[in-house]
């Protein structure tokens, strides 16, 4: 198989593939605020690009991207479109069930949005237990966060929403979509008292230990940015993207 996109094949060609041994990469994204300088589709664009590039290298197939996710906490920001968690779970359930019905048994979710992870977890465990499928998930930004410490050029050694890492990757993949003159440095604000907010997802600290506290996002950040995008460059983005691609290619080869 020379083409890497699942949707580029006819039904007859799909039927002729070695489906049990072909890995399907499923890009999951979102349409949500990504700060004042990045487009709403960042998570989708990055997940889809990674899935396509890894599929080209490994012989896997990149499935159709899902550009909507669970982003309820960002609905305060114009343009965010969020599916209810139960809706997303059902969409993923039906997506994977179709692939499994057609004989595919190896699926990897390339997840660009942390809010999707709960739905993936539910569906993956259902399919693994009831349909003998082998399913994995890679959370792109969590993986980038782990890699950041070993990239000397990065100022931010951990992933920040709409910060250096995310902005750098977009400057590499889609520079025409990035408006750097709208970028600003902003970090998560934490109110008075013993609880220290660390992210819009609810990660917080109390007496030095991590807990979860759910707050309205606009009380934590005015712009939606939670880091320093001004340090971002396309060169850093290329380095991060290639490390992610290399890691995923090796994972697919051994899956």
Written description of the protein model:
It is a single chain. The protein has 255 residues and is an alpha/beta fold. The chain has seven helices and seven strands, in the order H-E-H-E-H-E-H-E-H-H-E-E-E-H. The relative contact order is 0.17.
Rg, nearest Å: 19 Å
Give me the count of strands: 7
Helix and strand content put the structural class at: alpha/beta
Mean pLDDT, nearest integer?
95
What brief labels describe this structure?
alpha/beta; 255 residues; 7 strands; four-stranded parallel sheet
Report a brief summary of the structure.
With 255 residues, this protein is α/β, with parallel strands linked by helices. The protein contains seven helices and seven strands, in the order αβαβαβαβααβββα. The strands form two sheets. The chain has a four-stranded parallel sheet, with helices on both faces.
Layout of strands and helices, then pairs:
Blueprint: H1 11-16, E1 23-28, H2 42-58, E2 61-62, H3 85-101, E3 106-111, H4 117-131, E4 134-139, H5 140-148, H6 164-173, E5 195-197, E6 203-206, E7 209-212, H7 234-253
Parallel strand pairs: 1-2, 1-3, 3-4
Antiparallel strand pairs: 5-6, 6-7
Helix pairs in contact: 2-6, 2-7, 3-4, 6-7
